[in-house]
């Protein structure tokens, strides 16, 4: 996966910030804001449809959290295992976003894809589906869940990221460290296997 | 499941920088961990997909000011004017997309009878004929609590000439507390509430606690209040969620001030404890409520659906006249010693029935008549599907025909049954 690099070397920039250089904080925000914003926006797209308007605020809050207490959280970055500062920042941003949303309960939007909201929508439109159809739907969903749970780690990552969370096959191939051809073959094989397992369970 | 990897390990895995054993170990964990999958799916972003939005530079400015004001919005606008005339704002005005931040400001408002401390104010000027966004953080409203952040979007060319200046108002106020007294109805009327919601085309309030003190009953406390409105033409489109006692309620709908019409859908999950004693007797496992209120000009109807915990059941449809129903509800919800003096429910069954855990689902028509002690009665009728607990369902499963249910509040459930063409009666006694 190609890595986003801000114009200035991240080591030099972090070093300047640690030494208390006056412009370093602003340069960090300027250089990495698009990266953080993009990660948060993608999370909101995946989990909180219709709440893309929160991305700006959350980006701001993530940076505030990083710089709070004399940058205690930012100082935790050590670059172990060769991970880049940008990669670490994306992971931290998404985890902080999840925490912030949970704490402020912004996730309970009527447009959100939460179980409670889905349940409400189901209740409001439930006259369309009879109990038999619901039973079939629930059983199919449970069967699929059980079938996915039996897959190996790579196959499961492929299904979870590509089918369930909408990442492109290209992204998944990069993440799994395989070629596009290999990921196509893997996808076809996994889907065949899931179909067979679902047929057998019925 | 193993412990989630720390930030650096997950970032290293995402960038394939780890040694093989550690890479495989995290791969196995992530494949089965919803939380890490969410992080990975959002954070694994190739550089070429990054948005090319220009970065807005922050210009730190420090200033302290005291602004007398009669309400928030003019106060914030006055703060902006102060900033501009003070020579600080000109710098921001000259450059599109530039932001200016003030670290502290204090506003005295006679609306709350005390001063409002704002720790941080930010002004952002949009490009061209765009808009001015005023952001405030940490508003201390004294006894009312705190507003964590507020945002007002203003139309710049009409600044200070009426409420249409305000394009959007957003408040994030988890610690905000607002108490209403029933004895002082003039303070907050439905009309005033509607007016507040229509203050701007977009209003969003997240967080806050609303307490309503009643003269003849316990206070109603609504927590985690969240309201959003969009005003289009004369219509206010509303969506709101709130926590009442131990249940969550949601409301969405349209308020048409010009036509005096309301169309609201109220949804509830894990019903408030105040309601449960009245419905648990005959609908064990009840979990959700959705009610739609429609009407205007003194004619109001409500229709709703009760759903039980079992996902295979679509719920029970109910409907009634709002005015008649409300004569029952307030007393039942507020007076601690109030109770149903009599509740009679008849359920005419269709042929269909489904066995489910803890009982059976039946389809038919329901008519319920209820009377409160010292209050007039009301009735509810509906067509739908109901859940009957196992004590009742055994009669059905044995293929006996259930002609009706007579339910009294002394803990006895009397069920007339017809067995092989002969009338009989089954009594179920509730154990406490």
Structural overview:
The complex is a heterodimer of chains A (202) and B (432). With 202 residues, chain A is an all-alpha fold. Chain A contains nine helices and no strands. In chain A, helix 2 crosses helix 3 (54-71), helix 3 (54-71) packs across helix 4 and helix 6 packs across helix 9 (180-201). Chain B has helices spanning 7-14, 20-31, 34-43, 72-85, 89-94, 190-197, 276-279, 322-326, 329-334, 390-397; strands at residues 58-60, 64-69, 99-102, 104-109, 114-125, 132-140, 146-154, 166-172, 177-181, 202-206, 209-213, 220-232, 235-244, 247-256, 261-269, 286-296, 299-308, 316-321, 340-356, 359-372, 378-389, 401-402, 406-407, 412-419, 422-429. Chain B has an 18-stranded mixed beta sheet that branches. In chain B, strands 22, 23, 24 and 25 form a four-stranded antiparallel beta sheet that branches. The two termini of chain B are 41 Å apart. Classes of the chains: A mainly alpha (202), B alpha+beta (432). At the A-B interface, helix 2, helix 4, helix 5, helix 6 and helix 7 of A face helix 1, helix 2, helix 3, strand 14 and strand 15 of B.
Query: What's the total count of β strands of chain A?
Result: 0
The outline of chain B comes out as extended
What is the residue-averaged pLDDT of chain B?
57
**DSSP, total strands of chain B:** 25
Number of helices of chain B: 10
Quaternary form: heterodimer
Regions of chain A with pLDDT < 50 over 5+ consecutive residues?
Answer: 1-7, 106-113, 120-134
The N- and C-terminal alpha carbons of chain B lie at a distance of: 41 Å
Our estimate of the beta-strand percent of chain A is: under 5%
Order of helices and strands of chain A: HHHHHHHHH
Q: What structural class do helix, strand and pairing data of chain A support?
A: mainly alpha
- What structural class should be given to the helix and strand makeup of chain B? alpha+beta
Low-confidence stretches of chain B: 47-98, 157-164, 185-191, 269-287, 308-314, 327-343, 370-376, 391-413, 418-422, 426-432
Fraction of residues in H or I helices of chain A: over 70%
